[in-house]
Amino acid sequence: MFITYACLTAAANVPKAAWLNIQHKDKIVHFTFYLVFTLLWVLDLIKTKRFSPKKARIVVFIIAVLFGIIIEICQGLFTKERSPDALDVLANTSGSATAILLLWIFNKKK
Questions:
Q1: What is the C-alpha to C-alpha distance for residues 103 and 58, in angstroms, rounded to an integer?
Q2: Within-domain flag for 4
């Protein structure tokens, strides 16, 4: 829910931090949101034994990528202050893929 809200709220409603004046910080935020989102969801599915580790990684990655695409479409259709951005989808997907890679490496070492 937090990711959905953060992706659909107007940027003007987000508090500004002067010390955080980093180029492309929105892409870093997208990457980080999806990295954490994917990690937590996969770990929950594995911990609760709803899916095998491999299946959890596949299912969550697919859903995360589709969710990122849908959010970008919704930004274009339902908000005045936001617009869809293919680079946001790339950042989202990269964050999710990084999470899957980290989980795969960790699982392989077991």
A1: 11
A2: no
Got the DSSP string for 5-36? HHHHS-GGGSPP-GGG--TTHHHHHHHHHHHH
Position 7 in a domain: no
pTM for the full model?
A: 0.80
Angle at 38 between CA 1 and CA 47, to 5 degrees: 100
Q: What is the pLDDT of residues 50-63, one digit of tens each?
A: 999 999 999 999 99
How many domains, in total, are found in the chain? 1
What is the length of the chain?
110
User: What does the pLDDT look like over 13-45, one tens digit per residue?
Assistant: 556 555 556 666 889 999 999 999 999 999 999
Q: What span, in angstroms and rounded, lies between the C-alpha atoms of 35 and 67?
A: 13
